[in-house]
Amino acid sequence: MKKIHVGFLMSYDYELLKNAIPKVYADADAIFLAIDKDRLTWSGSLFEVKDSFFDWVKEIDKDQKVSFVEDTFYHPELSAMDCEVLERKFLADKMGVGNWIIQLDADEYPVDFKAFVRTLRKYDSYLVNPASQPIQIATFLVNIYKFVDNGFLYIDEPTKCMTATNFPNYKVGRNTKERIIYTNHLMLHETLSRDESELAFKFENWGHSNEVNPDFMEKWRSANSQNYKDLTDLFYLEPHKWKRLNFINSKDLNEIAEKLHRNNFSPSNWFLFKKNFGQWFKFLKYFKWIK
C-alpha cells in the first residue's frame, strides 16, 4: 500500500498514450490501462486498437509495471458521463484504495511527474484511513488549443484538474466533491490539438457529448497564428471560461514545458494559499456539523 498507482482510460485516442505513459513510467509503481472489452466508447461507437500498440507497450514496459483492465463500460441506458464515472470507479478499485490513485486521460502529459510525486508524499498520512479524510489533489492544465504553422495556440490561463485522490468516490468525471488540495504542478493537455475529424469524433463520444457549444468548431477552424489575439470565448462547453489564446513557436512538448516555466504560467503561491485555506475551512467537520 501507499504506492503511486497511475491509471489511464484507453479509447479511440489511445495513440496519445505513447506521449503520456513515458512521462509517468519511471516514478509510478504500477500503471493500469482501462479499456472496454467490446471496444465501444461511452456513446456506443466502435473503435479499434491496432496490435502494434500492444507491441509498443511490451517494448517499453521494461519493469513490468503496465497491466490492462477490461470490462463493459458502455451501457446504453446510462448517459456518457455516467459511463465515464462507472469506468473510473472500476479502474480505481483495481488500483486499490490505500495507494495514491492518479487517473489521467491519454491526452494529459505531466510536465514534471517526479516533482508531483514528491508533493503527494507530503500527504501520505491521508492514506492511512482514506474514508475518514477523503481528499483530492489538483494540478493545472495547459490547454493546447490547436497546432498551427510552426507552433501551437494555447489557452492563456491554466485550469484546475483533479489528478489524484486517496478515496475515489467519483461523482462527475474525476471529481469526488471532497476537499481539494491545489498544487502548482502543470500538465500539458492535448485536448483539441488534433485534426477536425478526430475532434468531431471526440465530441460525439466523450462524457460531455450533449454539452458541446455548437459554435465552437467554426471558431476553432478559423484560428491561426495571425488572428489568435482577436479571438475570445473559446471553451467548447461554456465559451466564456476560456477568454484568450497565446502562441508558442514550438511543437516539441519538452521545449514547450520549459517555456511555460520561464513564463511563470503556474498559479502563484498566493493564489494557492488562498484556495487551499478556503478548502480547509470549507471542509472543517465543525462547520459541516453546524450546516
Describe it for me?
The protein is α/β, with parallel strands linked by helices and 291 residues long. The chain has one domain. It is built from 9 helices and 10 strands. Strands 1, 2, 3, 4, 5, 6, 7, 8, 9 and 10 form a 10-stranded mixed beta sheet that branches. The longest helix is centred in the first third of the chain and has 16 residues, at 80-95. The mean pLDDT is 90.
Helix percentage range:
25-40%
Tally of extended strands? 10
Please tell me what the overall shape is. Answer: globular
Radius of gyration: 19 Å
What fraction of residues sit in β-strands? 15-25%
In short:
This protein has helices spanning 17-24, 51-60, 80-95, 113-121, 196-205, 216-222, 253-262, 269-282, 285-290, and strands spanning 4-9, 30-36, 66-71, 100-105, 108-110, 135-148, 151-155, 159-165, 179-189, 245-248. It has 291 residues and is an alpha/beta fold.
